[in-house]
Specification:
Layout: E1 44-45, E2 51-52, H1 54-57, H2 62-65, H3 91-130, E3 155-156, E4 164-166, E5 172-178, E6 183-188, E7 191-198, E8 202-206, E9 218-225, E10 232-233, E11 269-274, H4 277-289, H5 306-317, H6 336-339, H7 341-349, E12 355-359, E13 371-375, E14 384-394, E15 397-404, E16 409-413, H8 414-421, E17 424-430
Parallel strand pairs: 3-10, 4-11
Antiparallel strand pairs: 1-2, 3-5, 5-8, 6-7, 6-9, 7-8, 9-11, 12-17, 13-14, 13-17, 14-15, 15-16
Length: about 425
């Protein structure tokens, strides 16, 4: 035997010819033979090599428990390394260790997630407690953030009450919506319109007059609040676009899916300028006879024919005579209100159903076909009467032109008239 080989261990390996002297590393996979019964005279030996009590030895069944342990009549034999049965290797230990580390990592991750969730809950509760309007509650109670009302500003939810208006202006148009009392300005086709009445759910404005070249033009109507922000125009309630279908879920049915948001296209309101036949007839008469008097039908008052000519234009517009304002074509008799500027003013004061007086500060309400009267010497009476033939509105203000007799003109700039003649001007808005 080699002097370098270790001495066998007599306590674990019996000294038999069947098992030669081998180092322990060479015999690590061999099975230890069972002890010989004669070495243990007072113990019952279980077939698997373990000591058992005398009473338990009779119940052990070696064949049933370990059928491959040994063959009948033969002692136990070693198994080859390639056999899989009970071939215990270190890999099992490695797997156990690996599984242990995996379990530990998963446990730490789960603990971290729970801790993070708890931190998030604590942060959310702290934010809810610190937010304005939040109220403190005992532990365990649900803390709900107070609802904050958001002011979305005025909104128009209807169409225009009329889709077309005469280019001469003055037509009153109404829209409905929400918070319309906050609307500060209305613009029609780039021209500012006058707000007649503004209530919470209804707004009324007067259509501005434009040049007759705008006939048939469709212009946009825009609204803005006091800060200049445009007012939103929504689709009228109950209107569903053509070709779309609305499917309502059954009562109690939960789809679990969020409803898709359909982007709403910007909506605008448009107004079309048309011609008013009555105003067209009135202005047409002025523009026809401002320089050539219609003496075949009406008398001519030399030197102060202005009120007489303005009265003739009102007849062309469709007015009818009454006891306070008339001309007898057969006799030539006429009321003072027909031929005198001051008397015409006093008559119109008594007929608010026909006209409303406007100061020059209300020039933005003046429209084509209205009556303009001048007081040259600021005495309080009226010295000249004319018919408004043109109005232009812009960001810088409103310009007015008049036509008439005595000062024979078709388009006389009111500002120029005041600059040269002095005095003041007032208007009567004709209904």
């Amino acid at each position: 035997m080699s002097p370098f080989l270790p001495t066998r261990n007599p306590l674990t390996v019996p000294d038999t010819p069947e098992y030669p002297d081998l180092p322990l590393r060479r015999r690590s996979t061999f099975r230890i033979p069972e002890p010989r019964p004669e070495l243990l005279p007072q113990a019952a030996l279980h077939p698997n090599g373990a000591h058992v009590a005398d009473g338990d030895a009779a119940t052990a069944d070696p064949a049933a428990e370990r059928p491959d342990r040994r063959e009948a009549g033969r002692p136990g034999r070693p198994r080859h390394r390639a056999e899989r049965v009970r071939n215990r290797r270190a890999g099992g230990v490695r797997r156990a260790v690996a599984l242990g580390w995996a379990s530990a990592i998963m446990g730490v991750s789960a603990f971290g997630a729970v801790a993070a969730s708890a931190d998030d809950d604590r942060s959310a509760m702290a934010a809810a407690t610190d937010s304005p309007g939040a109220s403190s509650a005992p532990a365990g109670d649900t803390i709900a953030a107070a609802e904050v009302a958001v002011d979305e500003g005025p909104t128009v939810t209807s169409d225009l009450s009329v889709a077309a208006a005469p280019f001469t202006g003055g037509t009153q148009v109404t829209v409905t919506g929400e918070q319309l009392d906050e609307v500060a300005s209305v613009v029609v086709g780039g021209a500012p319109a006058t707000i007649v009445a503004a209530e919470v759910e209804q707004l009324t404005f007067a259509v501005p007059s434009v040049a007759d070249t705008a006939l048939g033009t469709s212009v946009e109507v825009q609204f803005a609040d006091a800060a200049g922000r445009p007012v939103e125009v929504e689709v009228p309630t109950g209107v569903v676009a053509a070709g779309t279908s609305v499917v309502q879920p059954l009562e109690g049915e939960l789809t679990g899916a969020a409803e898709p948001e359909v982007p709403a296209e910007p909506r605008t309101l448009a107004l079309t300028y048309t011609s008013d036949p009555h105003i067209d007839a009135q202005v047409g008469y002025v523009l026809t006879y401002w320089s050539s008097y219609n003496s075949a039908v009406y008398p001519v008052i030399s030197g102060y024919d202005c009120a007489n000519f303005a009265s003739q234009s009102l007849i062309a517009r469709g007015w009818t005579m009454d006891g306070g304002w008339y001309l007898d074509g057969g006799t030539g008799a006429m009321s003072p209100s027909w031929s005198s500027s001051t008397a015409l003013r006093d008559y119109l004061y008594t007929r608010p159903d026909r006209a409303t007086e406007l100061s020059d500060a209300q020039r933005d309400l003046v429209k084509v076909g209205d009556i303009a009267q001048f007081d040259w010497d600021s005495s309080g009476d009226r010295d000249h009467t004319a018919v408004v033939t043109r109005v232009e509105r812009s960001a810088t203000g409103t310009k007015v032109w008049v036509g008439g007799h005595t000062k024979d003109a078709d388009y006389w700039d009111v500002d120029t008239a005041l600059a040269t003649g002095g005095g003041s001007v007032t208007y009567f808005s004709i209904r």
